Amino acid sequence: MSHLSRTEGDLPTVDAATAAVRIAADATLLTSGFGSVGYPKAVPLALADSDRDLALTVVSGGSVGEEIDVALVEADAIARRFPYQARPQVRDALNDGRIAFADRHISTLADDVGFGDLAEADVAVVEAVAVGEDWLIPSTSLGHTPAWVDHADELIVELNRSQPLDLAAFHDVYRPGLPPDRDPVPLSSPGERIGGSRIEFDPDSLTAVVETDHRDEPYEFRDPTETDRAIADNLRAFLETEVERSPIHGDSVRLQFGVGSLGNALMSAFGDADFGDRDLIYYGEVIQDGLLDLLDAGQLKCASATSLALSAEGQDRLFADADRYAEDVVLRPADVSNSPALIDRFGVIAVNSALEVDLYGHTNSTHVDGSIALNGIGGSADFTRNAALSVIALPSTAASGDVSRIVPMVPHVDHTEHDVDAVVTERGVADLRGTSPRERARLLVDECAHPDYGDRLESYLDRALTGGGHEPHDLDTAFFWDG
To answer: What is the value of pTM for the model shown?
Structure first.
């Protein structure tokens, strides 16, 4: 990418404060960013520091940094937030009702915005490594940036000189058409490329270019725990058997893992999996450090995602050898990476975590006690609903063992029993496919629950069964169960 220039043409370059003034106090702000990388930094900070009475609607593709979900929140500048958040400050504000928050599926978010179902798109503020009069090249995430650029009336580009130009080699920009005339995405394999590195736009929409030099505030992955390793061992053994059993995985195994420390640990563990001579392929949302480990070891054929959600060390590692990694890693728009049709087409094995799973397989990923929002559903439902095999992987307990994660009845449902094929904890695996509700309950208690809670779950189930029914519950005690 040595031929690529940071800028091209006559650009409206201004400072962040000047750009921020051009944003209306009640604007709908579409920001780049996914997996806490690739988000704008200077303009959100300028808005937070402006002392204006702001009531912004902020829409991001995924999680972003403190410049948006801390500084703007503390400045009381956000009135409404879509569709995902992962910072304590914004979490507190939406749980207190100070910010109106609505969660949405990643795969449909571009359409939700494009058709005005969430809010009218006013201004897109996106980060780029290079920009011209009618094009830009995104930085460490692609996410919904192509859609935001298409839908917003005005465009502000943050040109981040701390992000290497070599990131252009990772991007594969393809825009799906709009319903009802949307054609199938012409992608025949996860490693194929069908677009280019540039996002093109109407030059009249570009109102400001702001130059910055601030790196992302990326993930910090904790070291794998003994529980993480036990979950990984159980998952690996289950999938080794499944791959041999199912003709879906005749030539290759296509995996997706949810973002976070557990997902990262599970990725790394699959370097030891025995899948015969099958290729190991990743088709998901985020590239995490564990995937770099597999690539470096020659154990992963290719990886397709929408974001380089790496730790600081992972970023340094990728930036130092970007050309080599770009041979096997491709970033796509989120409405392609999370496309239900493509997840189905590629026969993906989806592995996502959760807060808790109930006795019948209903899964809560987002709300503690059914009320307190932690983050958002992200793309977990896109993959859980449409994968060839949907796995929920989680520890059997939380709070140092004081809380069971296998519960009688979840108080909030993100994934229904119809979408979850298997549950894996450090205790074992419950393969729920083809089972009746009563059989599912027994499997989850016997195979996945921690022994400290097994007797209490059995007692609950016995009480529930006295009332009969296809999916028995003791509603008087379901949410007061001592677990």
So the answer is: 0.95
